[in-house]
Design goal:
The complex is a heterodimer. Chain A contains 16 helices and no strands. Chain A is mostly helical. By secondary structure, chain B is α+β, with helices and mostly antiparallel strands. Chain B has 7 helices and 12 strands. Chain B has helices at 2-29, 40-73, 91-119, 125-130, 137-145, 253-264, 274-283, and strands at 154-161, 164-169, 174-176, 179-182, 187-193, 198-202, 207-211, 217-221, 227-233, 245-251, 269-270, 301-302. In chain B, the strands form 3 sheets. A 5-stranded mixed β-sheet of chain B has the order 3-2-1-5-8. In chain B, a hairpin with a 4-residue loop joins β6 and β7. In chain B, α1 (2-29) runs antiparallel to α2 (40-73). Chain B is elongated and about 90 Å long. Classes of the chains: A mainly alpha, B alpha+beta.
Chain lengths: 557, 306
């Protein structure tokens, strides 16, 4: 490794004008700077978060009354299909890849990702996926209506008779999104393995980097299965092969295996970086080192490994024999061991600290509490007899949204506020941030907690109409949903106003320990004038040792 | 210092007792969150749910109260920007909190396995016979011991289609769109689908099984409580998915036989079908507000249209 600037490299003081991070036009260009790409991912995905949110509002509006009266059943079915798809493939995945893009090179002391052009190409496929998805609303027959699972034979039914239909566009978009994610995964794994600064052994990496590393390994082994399943379904649908079509002798349960082999681990691809974000945030705002750093690091890899053998828990009541149900019950439950280790480590980190409840800390704490709840309902779902009752009911929807809104979206908000000063060079408004937090926290619980009693009572997911006895909890959930919609307004307002005219941010406003806080806000192109030499472990709060040998260290001691 | 330590232990102990008592209470409450127990299996499952709710409440309250305690009592003083104690880990503590979840998982899995074995609900028969290395036969052996789970006495064919349920009673060769079941008898259903994936689900029984086209799936259970319940399609089956409901009538074996005898005298007639009715209505609208859909199958011809 070298400490000497690479020949031809741009140093911060001699960068040409068009590469200035402050120039907004750059965010609309084919930039290869990982930080620009990171923000491109974040802003694009947030746009689709709002789109997916509007679909959710329509659904919650429909579910205010037991009858199917607000929209047609086909429209409702298209709404929940696209809500799930957009939120997963165009919000959570790309936004987390955005953070990983922005932070990983900074955190490991690299000047950029290993393959900067591949990185840019991977990003630009996301808007393409979005355009195809949204375009499906404007073709005869409308968008896909088979749910985000797209189980055949429902997904093979094509009442329009057209070759170009919503389901074909859906499958194309998902396949492109898969290709984009595989490109990203190759890039992340290579970057983390090959481009760490001198002295940064694996056990000196920040936990966010560990989490991204584990998550991207799942992408590498899981995505080929999903992509294969999607392509086979596409062939069944367009040229009439018979992989999954029972009318021609195919087996639809095979599709479920292809689908879940990736799509359950996909949850860990999403949540592992959130665990990484929690692990970055709790030490800073508790002013203590992360408790049990090494165990927490290894637990990410353990989750990645176990994730490969849990998929059948989505198919307990499908065509699975008893022995398979029981084996997968045990493996699924074992996920709680490495996640439990993390939760306890975070609690121990916070315990006895000097807590500051800034907006990022509030979001991280709220997210942690809701994650514990989600973990408990997750254990219940992994138990075969309980799952036989609540599978495909609102209990699952409630659990899933505690994971994906309560934990992932809250974690994303925490991360956005925490790194906002670094990314933009300006401070956000703390009071608007707190208003946002309380609206989001109350809205989340109001929206998703009632789904648990509904599910236990037997209300099914994906229904546009329901029995009148379920109305009470549905109205509460819908009101919570609308509150969540409203909660995004102070956030957007805060982000836009603060980015334009917020107070100038210092390089390290939180007095955090980490390489990204040692460079200016926003960081210069190619990050480091000199590649840092790492001489100690991360999270050295309360210790006087510096993190690097050659960069100014903002450790308050 | 010593008094402080004793006080700390007392606080911890009080907290632990409070959390335990509240968790036990929540666990008891969980029965009231569930529909009536109308099948033998639902009793087993509800006990398991109550156990998991108790355990879950204990963990949730334990973690959140610790966090809340920190949030309230471990706040940084204004303008104090120094660090907290530099505690990086504690091997004993880490081993303990890894061992506890492992033991809990084994306990939960063991209990769940027992319940599942007692249920003996069966599944796709061909697959069970093809690969069965773990010897699920023991499930049936145990099931024979339990009086409620004896050999099935009543066999009924279930046909699911977009979007209707048809029940065929081979004993008298009659059909209906209402599922009548004799109470306290082991029932075996032969589940079949005509088109797409469907799911057989009766919340009051806590039982569910997907129905897969081209697969023979047997499903067993024992209703124990006379009354009227609802059967729904639990696996998303397309446009009119939500309308695919049927009544389930659990009645005494005598009433059941009488009902069978009565409908055997009736001529088959088309059943009411909400999907077909809605489809006819929307296709007559002058302005289409939705998208094209698969037309529902013709309403089934049954002896008892319900």
């Amino acid at each position: 490794m070298t400490n000497v600037p690479i020949e031809g490299m741009l140093l911060p003081n001699e960068k040409p004008n068009h590469e200035s991070p402050g120039n907004w036009k750059e965010y609309f260009s084919f930039s290869t700077d990982h930080k620009v790409i990171g923000i491109q991912y974040l802003v694009t995905s947030f746009f689709f978060f709002l789109v997916g949110g509007i679909f959710a509002m329509v659904m919650r509006g429909e579910l205010m009354t037991p009858e199917s009266d607000l929209v047609d059943r086909t429209v409702y079915n298209g709404m929940f299909t696209m809500h799930g798809t957009v939120m997963l493939f165009l919000w959570t995945f790309p936004s987390l890849v955005g953070f990983a893009n922005y932070l990983v090179p900074l955190m490991i002391g690299a000047r950029d990702m290993a393959f900067p052009r591949l990185n840019a190409v991977a990003f630009w496929m996301v808007p393409v996926v979005g355009i195809i998805m949204m375009g499906s609303f404007f073709i005869p027959g409308g968008p896909a209506q088979a749910g985000w699972w797209s189980y055949p034979p429902v997904s093979l039914q094509n009442p329009t008779g057209n070759l170009i239909n919503g389901q074909v566009l859906w499958l194309l978009a998902v396949a492109i999104s898969g290709v984009s994610s595989i490109m990203g995964a190759v890039n992340f794994v290579t970057t983390i393995v090959k481009m760490r600064a001198p002295g940064m052994g694996f056990f000196r990496m920040p936990l966010f980097v560990w989490a991204v590393f584990s998550a991207q390994i799942i992408q590498l082994f899981g995505l080929p299965a999903l992509t294969a399943g999607a392509v086979m379904l596409l062939l069944d649908l367009t040229v009439g092969t018979a992989f999954f079509d029972p009318a021609k002798g195919g087996n639809p349960v095979m599709f479920e295996h292809y689908f879940w082999f990736y799509s359950h681990p996909a949850v860990y691809v999403i949540i592992l970086p959130i665990f990484g974000i929690f692990s970055e945030i709790f030490p800073v705002y508790s002013r203590k080192p992360l408790f049990g750093y090494k165990v927490v690091a290894v637990s990410s890899i353990l989750i990645a490994i176990v994730s490969g053998i849990v998929w059948v828990h989505h198919m307990y009541v499908s065509g699975t024999p008893g022995w398979m149900r029981l084996i997968f019950m045990l493996t699924t439950m074992f996920v709680s061991v490495p996640t439990g280790i993390k939760v306890f480590a975070w609690v121990a980190t916070i315990w006895g600290g000097k807590l500051r409840l800034n907006t990022p800390m509030l979001f991280a704490l709220g997210g942690l509490i809701m994650f514990v709840f989600a973990g408990i309902t997750g254990i219940m779902l992994s138990s075969v007899p309980v799952d036989v009752h609540v599978n495909n009911t609102y209990f699952v929807v409630g659990h899933f949204h505690y994971v994906l809104y309560g934990t992932v979206t809250m974690g994303l908000y925490a991360a956005i506020y925490h790194w906002f000063p670094k990314m933009t060079g300006r401070m956000y408004s703390e009071s608007w941030g707190k208003i946002h937090f309380w609206l989001a926290f109350i809205g989340t619980n109001l929206n998703f907690l009632p789904m648990h009693p509904l599910g236990l009572q037997g209300m099914l997911r994906r229904v546009a109409s329901y029995a009148p006895e379920y109305q009470f909890w549905n109205v509460i959930a819908s009101l919570g949903g609308f509150l969540l919609g409203i909660s995004t307004l102070p956030f957007i307002f805060n982000m836009v106003i603060s980015w334009m005219q917020g107070e100038k941010a210092p390089d390290n406003p939180w007095r955090a320990i980490g390489l990204e806080w040692m460079v200016s806000s926003p960081p210069p192109v190619e990050n480091f004038e000199e590649i840092p030499i790492i001489i100690s472990e991360p999270y050295g709060y309360g210790k006087s040792e510096p993190l690097t040998a050659n960069l100014s260290n903002h450790n308050p001691d | 210092m010593n008094i402080q330590k004793i006080l700390n232990i007392l606080t911890l102990l009080t907290g632990a007792i409070a959390v335990t008592v509240i968790s036990l209470w929540i666990g008891k409450q969980s029965y009231s969150w569930l529909p009536p127990q109308a099948a033998a299996e639902s009793v087993l499952i509800d006990d398991l749910i109550s156990f998991l709710v108790t355990l879950g409440a204990f963990i949730f309250l334990g973690v959140t109260s610790t966090l809340m305690y920190s949030v309230i009592f471990h706040r940084a003083v204004k303008d104090d920007f120094t660090d907290g104690p530099s505690i990086e880990g504690n091997i004993t503590l880490e081993v303990v909190w890894t061992a506890i979840p492992i033991l809990l998982v084994l306990w939960i899995a063991g209990y769940s396995y027992q319940v599942y074995e007692k249920m003996g609900i069966q599944g796709p028969s061909e697959i069970v016979h093809l690969h069965n290395p773990l010897g699920m036969e023991s499930a049936y052996a145990e099931a024979k011991d339990a009086p409620a789970l004896a050999e099935p006495v009543e066999k009924i064919d279930v046909l699911a289609k977009q979007w209707a349920w048809v029940f065929h009673y081979p004993e008298r060769d009659v059909t209906s769109t209402e599922l009548h079941l004799p109470s306290d008898r082991r029932i075996r259903l032969a589940l079949r689908s005509q088109d797409v994936l469907h799911g057989f689900y009766i919340p009051a029984f806590r039982l569910k099984q997907d129905i897969i086209p081209n697969h023979a799936i047997d499903f067993e259970f024992t209703p124990i409580r006379p009354g009227k319940y609802s059967l729904t399609d639990s696996q998303y089956s397309g446009t009119y998915f939500a309308t695919m409901q049927a009544n389930v009538i659990v009645e005494s074996p005598e009433d059941y036989q009488q009902w069978l005898a009565k409908i055997a005298t009736q001529k088959p007639s088309p059943a009411k079908n909400q999907a077909a009715a809605e489809y006819a209505q929307t296709s007559h609208q002058s302005v289409q507000t939705g998208w094209v859909t698969v037309p529902p199958a013709a309403p089934p011809l049954v002896n008892s249209p319900g």
